[in-house]
Amino acid sequence: MSSQVLTTQEASAPALTAWLRFLRAHAAITRELSARLEALHELTLSDYDVLLQLYFAPERRMRRIDIARSVLLTASGITRLLDGLERCGLVDKARCESDGRVAYAVLTDAGVKKVEEARESHLADVEELFGSRFDRHEREQLAALLGRLPLAPTSDACSS
Amino acid sequence: MSSQVLTTQEASAPALTAWLRFLRAHAAITRELSARLEALHELTLSDYDVLLQLYFAPERRMRRIDIARSVLLTASGITRLLDGLERCGLVDKARCESDGRVAYAVLTDAGVKKVEEARESHLADVEELFGSRFDRHEREQLAALLGRLPLAPTSDACSS
DNA sequence: CGGCTATACTTGAGGTCGCAACGATCATAG
DNA sequence: CTATGATCGTTGCGACCTCAAGTATAGCCG
């Protein structure tokens, strides 16, 4: 049925075009954002992402597994990432009293400070590289469209 | 001016919301796409990407540096990626006669076959995970919006 | 020609991340 | 109380990718 060979990838379909632009834009923007974040604050984009989650979490602490799910890294990735943040003194590890399996990550005072410092320049960078390309209406449009994309491995990613 | 502290990242601005969704969606979708591609065809998403560039290139060959630029990897990344593809017999290396510095990557017959095999399932996967979320009009909208994002390090990424 | 700079590519070292396997803890049911 | 199964976390291993440095070629100018 749809096995017709297409001459170029761009000509194939708007979906593919959009997908390719999505891929390329991600590569370019995250590379630049990460470079700036690292140069100014010695943080990876993932580091920053995790710190920000903690910053806005109740009591500024979260279970490691919840961090993993919220930033879409695996549990092992979170372990190693937090190792680094702990060594830098930005995060503390706290065991849960009621459940011996879970370990919390808690933002330290230094961590709070770091987030607030980094956030300022990072917000500006995101605005420059991403946001400034769109007006208010387009931003909402884009957010709405991107919000439909799946976040879980394969199946539904609703509120459940 | 815009230094007011915001209570949650979602509340801050549509641009940030869009950016976060962009980040998360990329992580989820590429992970799934890569897993499927690897399971069915033993290819990385980057492998596939490079093979596809070659597939549509004149004479199915490209200079390594041009591959790097088109898929947004560094030159060293391309060297190692092509090493793998050469070992698999999907790509051949060819020196340029007029310029001793450049080395071409040429798609072999096996490479052509591989692309055509992988393309079928990959297109379906992209459609399922990405394209199917949007109708025709939305795809064009999305492609247009994403097309405004920068592809070069910092500055302009126009046709110059 | 000899020097100088730019470009194409490769290599060594290091960082980030996922997968799979493992240990520890909890919850449930017999 | 013990067996079973699920959940949380860590670790060994390997893949992928970047940065910085190094090699080789090309082009330009004195």
Overall description:
The structure is a homodimer of 160-residue chains. The first copy, chain A, has 160 residues and is mainly alpha-helical. Chain A is built from 7 helices and 3 strands, in the order H-H-H-E-H-H-E-E-H-H. In chain A, strands 1-3-2 form a 3-stranded antiparallel sheet. In chain A, strand 2 and strand 3 form a beta hairpin. In chain A, helix 3 crosses helix 6. The longest helix of chain A has 28 residues. Chain A is globular. The two termini of chain A are 36 Å apart. The N terminus and C terminus of chain A are likely disordered. Chain A binds a DNA duplex (30 and 30 nucleotides) through helix 5.
Short synopsis of the structure:
The first copy, chain A, is mostly helical and 160 residues long.
